[in-house]
Amino acid sequence: MSSPILTLVAQRIALGLLLLLAVSVLIFAGTQILPGDVAQSILGQSATPASLANLREELGLNDPAYIRYFRWLGGVVTGDLGTALSSRQDIATSIGGRLWNTLFLAFWAAVVSVPLAIILGLLAVRYRNGFVDKLISGLALASTSLPEFFIGYLLVYFFAVKMQWFPGISTVYDGMPFGERMAAIALPATALTLVVLAHMMRMTRAAILNVMQSAYVETAELKGLSAFDVIRKHAFPNAIAPIINVVMLNLAFLIVGVVVVEVIFVYPGMGQYLVDHVSKRDVPVVQAVGLIFAAVYIGLNIIADIAAIIANPRLRHPK
Amino acid sequence: MAKAGTKEKPEILLDIRNLRIEARVFPPGEAPRDITIVDDVSLTLKRGKVLGLIGESGAGKSTIGLSSMGYGRGGCRITGGEVILNGRDVLKGGKQGFRKLRGREVCYVAQSAAAAFNPAHRLMDQVVEAALLHGVASRAEAEKRAIALFKKLSLPDPQNIGKRFPHQVSGGQLQRVMTAMALCSEPDMIVFDEPTTALDVTTQIDVLAAIKDAIRDTGVAALYITHDLAVVAQVADEIMVLRHGKLVEWGGTRQIIKEPRQDYTRALVSVHQIEHQEKKPGTKPFLSVKNVTATYGGGVVKVLKNVTVDIFPGQTLAVVGESGSGKSTLARAITGLLPPMEGSITFSGRKLANRLADRTKEDLRQLQMIYQMADVAMNPRQTVGTIIGRPLEFYFGMRGKERDRRVTELLEKIEMGKGFIDRYPAELSGGQKQRVCIARALAAKPTLIICDEVTSALDPLVAHGILNLLLDLQQEEGVAYLFITHDLATVKSIADSIAVMYRGEVVRYGAKSEVLRPPFDAYTDLLLSSVPEMEIGWLEKAIKGRRMESAGN
């Protein structure tokens, strides 16, 4: 690996870290702007001025905001996300299992949706403007246009209630056998797949169509390659950068944007956890989850950037 | 090799009969209609022979060449006639039939190999792809053959050049790799589509010689498509002249260039030299470039080294050199687009600000530019009237009737007339577009117009017209030109003084008659001797007489 790539990659990572720091400031500032503070939330109705003052002293809430920010940040960096107000439990511990559940669901949704979207995109280009293209585009568009909760309920209605193939509530627990776990996530994973499929498929189609006008595609056609081979071997590798970008955005959505789907299927993931604690006004939990979501988003986008850099032969093999 | 022995191969390899090709066009503001690109053209090509197809752009040369592979570019459809290759009508073979012959019986070499190679794959993978696809050879055999071809085409480091990516190899080398790619599957015929047109004149000669040797040694037949009669005369056995999709004349190479029978062929053979009397340099130049050094990348790459030239009022300084020699950079330094690192530019006795942003509107008005690609230098959504009227508004504050009158005047100056005022660039021919760009530059009443390869993208006859127009305008308006070009024939027609540039330096500078009078320095000699002459056997003579290698760009 040569130096220009390393420099670019290092730049991207440094930028990502900087961005994450900025986001942490925003999250902290945002929760500061909300009326009331943690002491008030903890004591609730039973607050007296004296007990409030005591608790504020105890929690260090009288320190200036920037000191509290750095105390919080220091905790986050060392893995201490604080204590949930509602349950008095350590946030890092409760998030651990749920994050894993969310990643598990996102992983399987991605394993199905990414290859499927790319293959459908290739097929759409191969039969562009024909029946197959229109069918693929139409179905994909329809599945994106339907709100995810509606898709969720449709799936539950048909596959859980009518046909009873899969459970309608995706309960998972520690030590659950792999097969049962897969059956439990089948419906939410399908719902997620349908939501992200169209975006990736259409981007793949557009990115490849963009390079189909190139002279090297003509060269490939004039070698006698079949239409699909021309697309797969000669057009696709040159369209990879925008495709990676949109794939990563959708992967981020699979982790960060699953809130609604998790709630519908009562799946014990990050989204559910977040919704629960927002309704309880549990600020430390919201801060922690927000920061994790931001980290996932930024991390995946860094990976997309780096992958796009590496996919460029001009950067990979300088003159 | 694969088919040898199975069937007696006919002596006539390709027999095109009454070919007719149509395409649907979408003119702006009109209903789509079909136009005829190729009209009733017949030709035959014997095994191992080279037929040159020649004509201006739009003559249907490439379309005919590609029809031998059953390929229609951009919506072209073969609507009539027969294309008989190796004894069968390929048009009846359908898609499967086309795929079997493409890359196997007929291969294609494109004008710009730099664009025709896939940037994502290594050269070797692309070179052997067709041979593997059609089962002509195993990978090991095909690679061995490719390396032998690289050697034959005198590519540097033939063992390893296949491991490179297209962007790691120069344009002239890529063109040779593409020829090797076409030869690798041992086809019966190759379609060369302007294979040297995009190259520097000094590189063109190398590639041309390599292609000629490869054709001779492998015994492959070829359709050689070009607009340059002097080039095709070096490689073709026969030449076919085409115009507007119709056959004009077809004959042996010697007959076409020595005894053309048709007026159009005669015009093609005779053009280009304009007798231009060199003007005596005035006493005082109005623009002086003194010891200018300019760099890209913050001083990393020196593209201009200590350049000094003068331009006199109403005269033309031609800057000649191959790509990468710094010609266009000199223009960028003068216009302030690339502020020089050292040196100065004096205009009418005062120093011009280095940076474009620091110059006054009056300075900007005095220096105008015309570019090589007229179509990308104009806003496609503006009419000719708006395009030419813009500098009138901007520099002189002209409005309404006054402006329209001046636009009409300018249109007459460029020999186009009032009727064009409401047309869009897409409705103009290449030559007309360049004329509109000239009118736009002229509208500012500049002292100097910088012409950056303004005739390079045009057909010879059209370019001839543009040069004549520029000379006439110089007489009438007294405007000076800085004329950047790689084409020495153009230089002879228009220049009063010449600066020859090589790797960022001016290697020869003076009045035209001095610069073009021997003895020459090695580079000027290479440049002059590389310009193809319409003479059979010129190529061999030129290669033999060379004193230095070309840079290979």
From TrEMBL, chain A:
Primary location class: membrane
Gene Ontology terms describing biological process: transmembrane transport
TM ranges: 103-123, 135-161, 181-200, 243-268, 288-311
Keywords, alphabetical: Cell membrane, Membrane, Transmembrane, Transmembrane helix, Transport
Membrane topology: Multi-pass membrane protein
InterPro entries: BPD_transp_1_N (IPR045621), MetI-like (IPR000515), MetI-like_sf (IPR035906)
GO CC term (a single one): plasma membrane
Lyase found in the keyword field: no
Cell location: Cell membrane
Domain ABC transmembrane type-1: 99-304
Keyword Cell membrane (UniProt): yes
Family according to the record: Belongs to the binding-protein-dependent transport system permease family.
This protein's name: ABC transporter permease
Organism from which the protein derives: Allomesorhizobium camelthorni
Taxonomy of the source species: Bacteria, Pseudomonadati, Pseudomonadota, Alphaproteobacteria, Hyphomicrobiales
From TrEMBL, chain B:
Organism taxonomic ancestry: Bacteria, Pseudomonadati, Pseudomonadota, Alphaproteobacteria, Hyphomicrobiales
Primary localization: membrane
Protein name: ABC transporter ATP-binding protein
Family in the record: Belongs to the ABC transporter superfamily.
Record's subcellular location: Cell inner membrane
A GO MF term: ATP binding
Organism per entry: Allomesorhizobium camelthorni
PANTHER family documented for this protein: D,D-DIPEPTIDE TRANSPORT ATP-BINDING PROTEIN DDPF-RELATED, TRANSPORT ATP-BINDING PROTEIN
GO terms of biological process kind: peptide transport; transmembrane transport
Cross-referenced Pfam families: ABC_tran (PF00005), oligo_HPY (PF08352)
Keywords: ATP-binding, Nucleotide-binding, Transport
